[in-house]
Amino acid sequence: MNNPLESTATLLNRVRTGDVEAQERLCSVYLPILTNWAHGRLPKHVRDLNETSDMVQITLIKALEKLDTFKPIREGSFLAYLRKILLNNIRMEIRRYTRQSDKKKMINDVELIDTEASTIEQAIGKEMLEKYENALARLPQKSREAIILRNEFGFSFLEVAEAMDLTSANSARMTVSRALLKLAKLM
Hints:
Layout: H1 8-16, H2 20-38, H3 52-65, H4 75-108, H5 119-124, H6 126-138, H7 141-152, H8 157-163, H9 169-186
Helix pairs in contact: 1-2, 2-3, 3-4, 4-7, 7-9, 8-9
C-alpha cells in the first residue's frame, strides 16, 4: 500500500531503481498539477495534434528519461524542474508551428495572420510575460521555486513551506514576499 504522504524524493529514488508503481504514483501526483498550470499556455492557433494534455505527458516522459541527471534540493525542486521542461516543450511547439506556417505561406504565397494570444498572454501581455520569464530565470533557485509554487501552481503558504522545507506557513509567506520583491526589481 502506498503512503499518500510519500515524499517526492522517496518516489524519485524508487523510480530510479526501476519501481514501476512509484513511477505511476509520481505521474498521478504531478499530472493534474501540470495540466492545470499548462492550461491556456499553448496558444490556440498552435494547437493541432498536440493538445495541453499531450504536452504534459511529453513533459513527464522527458523528465523520467532524464531522472538520472536531476538532483532534488527540496520537494518543490521537482515541480520547478517539470515546469521548465513543459515551458521548453511549449516554446518548441510554437517554433515548430511558426516554421510550418512559414513554409505554407511560401507555398501558397498567402500570409497567415493569427491574432489569438494564449490565455496568459491575454491576461498580462506578451511583453510583460517575456519580462517576467526573463526576471524569473535570473532569480536564485529558492526564490524562483517560491514564486512558481505559490503564484503559478497555486500552493497555499503551508504547502509552499512543506515543499521547500521551511518551518512554517509564515516563513513561506516571507520567502514568497521577498522573492516577489526581487522579481519586481528585476522586471
